Amino acid sequence: MSDLKRLGKEQASEPLPQEPPQVSASWVLIMSSLFIGLVAFGALQLTNGQSKAGALPPQAVFVDPRSFAVVGQNGTFRESSFASFFNPTNTSPPFFQVFDRSFLDILGSSASIHEIASNPSFAFAHESPIYDSRTDEVFFASNDGGPLGMSDIDNNNQLGKISLKEVEASLKKNTASINATVTNIPLPEEAQMTNGGTGLYRSSLLLINSGRGPLPPSLTLVNPRAPHNATVLVDNFFGRQFNSLNDVKVHPSGKIFFTDVTYGFLNHFRPPPLMPNHVYRFDPDTGAVRVVADGFDRCNGIAFTHDGKTAYISDTGAAGGFLGLNQTEPATIYGFDVDPKTHAFKNRRVFAYVDAGVPDGLQVDLKGNVYSGTGDGVQVWNSEGTLLGKFFLGTTSANMVFAGKGRLVILAETKVFLAKIAAVGQDLNFP
């Protein structure tokens, strides 16, 4: 058979092309409605926390970042990170604000948060949170020179404590109204304007003090038990007073690191500063002090990862005391590599910039998540700097501390909150 005849025969045996099936308009409408319904249901499930990570705890709200990625030309934008906070669901605080589903691993399925102490006329719970596991108590200092702090160049601030045993007993009876007893601890003369603290360190409270008037800033050990005697570890840098020491942490090596900043001067209880704002290392075995990091506007909080390889420093430059607020200055947490030999801070990088107020005190849990007190409560990032969620208080928190397994005590100036969560914090005790 010729090729031409073969081709003709093959073509004749092929089926003729058919017209595409006609789809009715009603069928299109039904399928479109079904698709839209499924999308809406999925969004609702995300909002209600029915995600891969499970249901949200009762006091939690999920806010999908995609839901506010575009505000629109006629939308309402925030103009101040200090005067207005991001709460698109208008949920009443305190609550957990979830931006990333992995925050649910930190919270756990039965997370709760409650106000446990309050004094609206006195900022009694500012910073220096220290947990004593031997007595199940948390120590803290009042605001030094700030609003409602009842302290100034003529008056020292106060140190107090609450019993978590008392708090737990009250929670079993009633979660609606708790106001734990705050016991005043008389600060020794050596501790003037206490602002930071950690420990226990060799069974003592390790307090960092801003100083008052001509009385020098200092790093001081204070006995948590009566008579609350004190030992000053360092109060100068080669004969010069520090500006106003702010926060402190102990590195796994046993060396003590602290920040020095000008807030004593900016809050009218210290003379004009004489040195840059630095991060220092103090060697308790030799007494030697050295600078390990500089270049900050106003360095503030400090924390280390559990292995000591990474340090975090918050810069609160946007809050300027009598100079006022300036949102173009830092409200930023920086990460550093810690040199294993010299402990110098290297490879500085932006870890996070906060959206509410400034980042103040810092803590890191055992999984490397970073917690910071901010203008709207406590914010939490993973080790990559992704904001996972917030302990949304609707008011400022300067610091917080893990108080045993699964408990986070949050200081909020005139209030104290207790969050019960799944995350476990580092043991800050140093023998």
CATH level-3 fold name of the domain at 113-369 and 395-420: Neuraminidase
Termini separation (Å)?
A: 100 Å
Report the CATH C-level class of the domain at 113-369 and 395-420: Mainly Beta
Output mean pLDDT.
90
Name the strands of the widest sheet in spatial order.
1-2-23-22-21-20
How many DSSP helices? 5
The quaternary structure here is single chain
Shape: globular
Radius of gyration, CA atoms, in whole angstroms: 28 Å
Region (Disordered): 1-20
Biased composition (Basic and acidic residues): 1-12
Protein name: SMP-30/Gluconolactonase/LRE-like region domain-containing protein
Domain SMP-30/Gluconolactonase/LRE-like region: 228-406
Provide the fold topology:
Elements: H1 3-13, H2 25-47, E1 60-62, E2 95-98, H3 103-107, E3 112-118, E4 127-132, E5 137-141, E6 159-163, H4 164-173, E7 183-185, E8 194-201, E9 204-209, E10 218-222, E11 230-234, E12 245-250, E13 256-260, H5 263-266, E14 278-282, E15 289-293, E16 299-304, E17 310-315, E18 332-338, E19 345-353, E20 362-364, E21 370-374, E22 377-381, E23 387-392, E24 399-402, E25 407-412, E26 415-420
Parallel strand pairs: 1-2
Antiparallel strand pairs: 2-23, 3-26, 4-5, 5-6, 6-7, 8-9, 9-10, 10-11, 12-13, 13-14, 14-15, 16-17, 17-18, 18-19, 20-21, 21-22, 22-23, 24-25, 25-26
